[in-house]
Design a protein that fits this description.
The complex is a heterodimer of chains A (188) and B (403). Chain A has six helices and five strands. With 188 residues, chain A is α+β, with helices and mostly antiparallel strands. Chain B has one domain.
Chain lengths: 188, 403
């Protein structure tokens, strides 16, 4: 008990002493998230969204609120609804990702962010403007089409709405839904 | 009348230069007293400053032992961390619990702190540089350091807290037990040098006493780390059992004083080990750089203390007692007997031991140390914990196979 084992124990700690520290000093140094990380900064492509509100229906917590209005741009080409309100109250969100699974048109993606401390509860609600302006770095969670393209959100590469759909869905390849986005110059 | 310092104080160059400055300004007797006070002030502040650096150093070292970084945010390499800690503790509320003995509660940190500072009085830091050359230096150290156990008990008693009194009782039990082997191990040194003065002990070390009496160093190292309540023996303040032990109710500056006393005790013990066992200021460097050599030795001892703390888990109270009375006490006694017999034979008619005599003692004592450790290990380890003896181990294995 008090013999060579003590020296062995001392040698173990000495071996660890000579190792490089494993600490990552967080605010300065960061660990990159996994590509399939289910995090905040939802990536939303308004061009792909039809306003079906599947995400809101599937959300187990009911924290997604969608209000649509008839579109005034290109109704004949399938652009029947435009979104007036798309609020995600992430103060209660558990990041289950069911909204992303439910989206039939690949318009909503999870993100890689996790630093979402805010000062008020109202700030915790992501509004439609924040969704429009958020960086388009979608997580590859539940989106195998992104992984098959060797896309990695950690590289900082931004994807447009044309790049993120499932292949074989030619419906999206024609520019139908995206027409209404530029409201000012109402093209097409 | 020439204002001259007498005897030992003439050789202490710091004391002498302070006295030279003072004697130009004040009358003779006053200048001697003032020089002494200034030297004492210097020593105390050096000890307290090194205590502050020690807290940082130990945390950094422990961090590296656990493959972490340790405190590094405030100042270069986190060196200003002790200042931040101190400022934090100064601004904390200074609570005195209900039902506490107010006077004893306030005086307890002081009683713990003062012996640590007083020990510095006899420690030689360089050739001739010591507060005083006491001819019973080792006895003084042993007597003074025991007083802090009184402080620990007063702190536990005055807190009016069950965990505090548990910690105090445990701490005093450990301290009284480990005092015995520590004293006996230092007795071996005194027998070889023939003097209790620390200056004489350093000068007698033609061969450092770590080689002449390795077992005495082992016993002194383990025993003193138990007396300081350091981790393998820190049942007096075991965090997982009795939260903080005897200083559970202390907050603010009182807590800071207790912490400073603990780290100061560690520094003082390291200096004593460096002086008594590692040859003090003697080394390959020239004699004027002796203080640097001493500091290097002290740092090595502190590193070993931290290394031991980072390695071993806390022992139970019965294990600690058994280790003291069955392990360390026989070791120190065997060492003392061996040293006494060797000194008796080798000294003969001459007054002091020569270098060859010390080498002979080194060889014999190393062999005795190895044999003693092996034999005691065989004897003690089976008896310390009956549940783990070999016969029971085998029987339990058979049982498990049958089932």
């Amino acid at each position: 008990m008090y013999g060579i084992e003590m020296v062995k124990g001392l040698m173990v700690t000495l071996k660890n002493f000579s190792k490089k520290p494993v600490t990552i000093q967080y605010p300065e140094q960061r660990v990159a998230q996994h590509p399939r990380f289910r995090g905040e900064e939802f990536t939303w492509y308004e061009e792909r969204c039809t306003g079906c509100a599947s995400c809101a229906k599937y959300c187990p917590l009911g924290i997604i609120e969608i209000v649509t209005a008839p579109s005034d741009t290109a109704v004949k080409q399938g652009d029947k609804y435009q979104l007036e309100k798309f609020d995600i109250n992430i103060s209660r969100c558990m990041f289950c990702g069911l909204c992303v699974e439910a989206c039939p048109y690949d318009a909503l993606f999870m993100g890689s962010g996790f630093e979402e401390g805010k000062y008020t509860r109202d700030d915790m609600v992501i509004t439609i403007d924040q969704l429009r302006n958020s960086p388009k770095n979608p997580s590859t969670w539940y989106r195998p089409q992104l992984e098959s393209k060797n896309y990695d959100p950690r590289n900082g590469q931004q994807l447009t709405w044309k790049d993120v759909g499932r292949e074989g869905w030619s419906w999206h390849k024609e520019e139908k839904a995206g027409m209404r986005i530029n409201k000012e110059n109402k093209v097409n | 009348m020439s204002c001259q310092l007498q005897g030992f104080y003439q050789t202490n160059f710091i004391y002498r230069s302070l006295h030279d400055i003072m004697s130009g300004l004040f009358p003779c007797n006053l200048s001697i007293i003032l020089a002494g006070l200034m030297f004492a002030f210097l020593l105390v502040n050096i000890l307290l400053a090194s205590t502050a650096i020690m807290t940082w150093g130990e945390r950094r070292l422990l961090g590296r032992f656990q493959t972490r970084i340790g405190p590094n945010r405030w100042g270069p390499f986190g060196l200003l961390q002790p200042i931040a800690d101190l400022v934090k503790l100064l601004f904390k509320e200074n609570l005195i619990p209900t039902g506490a003995d107010k006077f004893l509660f306030i005086i307890a940190p002081i009683i713990i702190m003062v012996p640590v500072i007083m020990v510095m009085g006899v420690i030689p830091l360089a050739p001739g540089v010591a507060m005083t050359n006491l001819n019973v230096g080792i006895l003084y150290i042993l007597a003074i350091t025991s007083v802090s156990s009184l402080g620990i008990f007063i702190a536990g008693w005055a807190s009016n807290n069950r965990f505090a009194i548990f910690g105090a009782v445990r701490g005093v039990a450990v301290l009284i037990s480990y005092e015995v082997p520590v004293v006996i191990s230092l007795l071996g040194i005194v027998v070889v040098t023939g003097s209790m003065s620390l200056l004489d002990i350093v000068e007698a070390q033609a061969l450092p006493f770590i080689m002449v009496q390795p077992m005495a160093l082992l016993v002194f190292f383990i025993g003193s780390s138990a007396e300081m309540n350091r981790t393998p023996f820190d049942i007096a303040e075991a965090e997982s059992e009795i939260i903080a032990g005897y200083h559970i109710e202390f907050s603010g500056i009182k807590f800071a004083v207790i912490q400073a006393a603990e780290y100061g005790a560690m520094i003082v013990t390291s200096i004593i080990i460096a002086v008594v066992f590692l040859g003090g200021w003697s080394g390959p460097l020239p004699l004027t750089l002796g203080w640097l050599w001493l500091i290097m030795k002290v740092l090595v001892v502190i590193f070993v203390f931290t290394w031991v703390r980072a390695t071993f888990p806390r022992l139970r109270i019965d294990q600690i007692m058994a280790f003291c009375w069955k392990g360390l006490l026989p070791m120190s006694l065997i060492n003392l007997f061996a040293v006494v017999i060797e000194t008796f034979i080798l000294k003969g008619s001459g007054n002091s031991l020569s270098l060859i005599d010390l080498w002979i003692m080194c060889v014999i004592n190393t062999i005795i140390a190895v044999i003693t450790v092996i034999v005691l290990n065989k004897l003690v380890s089976t008896k310390i914990d009956p549940a783990m003896s070999k016969s029971q181990l085998f029987s339990s294995r058979k049982l498990s196979v049958r089932n």
